[in-house]
Design brief:
5-stranded mixed beta sheet, 6-stranded parallel beta sheet, single chain, globular, 362 residues, 12 helices, Rossmann fold, 2 domains, alpha/beta
Length: 362
Amino acid sequence: MKIAESIITDALRYYFFPKKGARSGFAFLVHPRDLSDVHKVIPVSKFLPDKVLRFLLRRFFAFTVGKIKANHSENIVITIPLTGQEMLRHETLAIRMIRKAFVLAQRRGVKMVGLGAYTSSVTKGGEALADLKEKGVCITTGNTLTALISFRHLKLFLKSADKHVKISDLVCAVIGATGSVGRGFMELAVDEPEFSELILVGRTPERLQKLKKELEERGLLGKKKITITNFIPDIVRADVVFVATSARSMIIKPEYIKENGVIYDVTQPRNVPKEITEARPDIAVIDGGVIETPDIDYPNIFGLEPHFAFACLAETLMLSLSNIDREFLGLVSKKDIDLISSLLDEQNFKLAPFMSFGKKML
């Protein structure tokens, strides 16, 4: 896609000629994980010093970076020109850019807007966009499908790799348990008989206490043990570690992981360093939150194989294909999971092969 042409088209739609008529299709909001992603989209940027490039990006604006053909609609991908670290470091600026990207999406005539990567967490699950929403437009964080397919994918890995890890009486740690994806995964894990204990990890002790109390009041625990902590090294007892955080840096260290432990990482940008498998070859690190969507082609900006997509994008696509006119915002609920599960069964989507840092496993 020609970036200059895209920027001009976006500017005309945003300021002068918003699309008229019935809404169709979707827009998916993204941001570069790091500067290497910027270089892929704007090749000339690789000749600029990193400091200069970051300075310019903070003064740039959101623009359409690619298109996705599906459901006889022209769906678009809009990028916010801040890397993951910059999104967290300059949160006020990031929210302002995301809000403008959301307005651009509406003026380009879409009926569904999906929030990718940190555009969801920075806007508090889309709540910071509610006042901008026009009639006929719905928002999804994509977190429900991310939680659902991650749980299914992880269960399949444990069954496939039974020589690597025991598959009963497991201790499972959920890092980011009070966040949306972590909460959704936990809603499924609490009913999983193979997990005898859940270690719920979050930043805020008060929110963790509230979560544990809610689980107890709902009568979901049975004989399952629940441990809450805001100290990440406490995961050392866990056989399985599910990582769903929005941290600025790598938060998992080799010494935190049990022998023959399994890490399932859905974070983008990553919170698990690649070096961990070099220091601890007994550990399995699984790339999570990816799904195969046969016959759907995506712009070459996500770093995935053809026809594969991150689940947050796939949920936006699936809702659009199914003509679902409702929103999926805030924390993931069991009700949301049940609905998305039924929609997923109607699609020709498949769980992705097991990958670790982009390389096939098993």
